[in-house]
Amino acid sequence: MCDALVRHGSEYTIVRWIKATLEGRVAVTSLNLYEVRDIQGYPQGGVLSSLLWCLVVNGLLTRLSGGGVFIQGYADDICLLAVGKFPNTVSGLM
What we know:
Structural class: alpha+beta
Order of helices and strands: HHEEHEEH
Radius of gyration: 18 Å
Helix content: 40-55%
Low-confidence stretches: none
């Protein structure tokens, strides 16, 4: 996520702040005596999460576009469409 911010020209101070926010995040889920700690990802529901998601996915869409595969992203969904006469052709494109 921080790499995507740098690629899009974000200021160093902002990148450093977001990195500190992401590195210090711990989500804990518990059920009875079982507990799971997750330190990956970013908080959901805020403006920053949507921006970071768009920046990261934009890089993915750019890398995957072309080569006979149509790719479309909308909100938090990505759709790939490959067209060919034979299943092996489509499989090869994907």
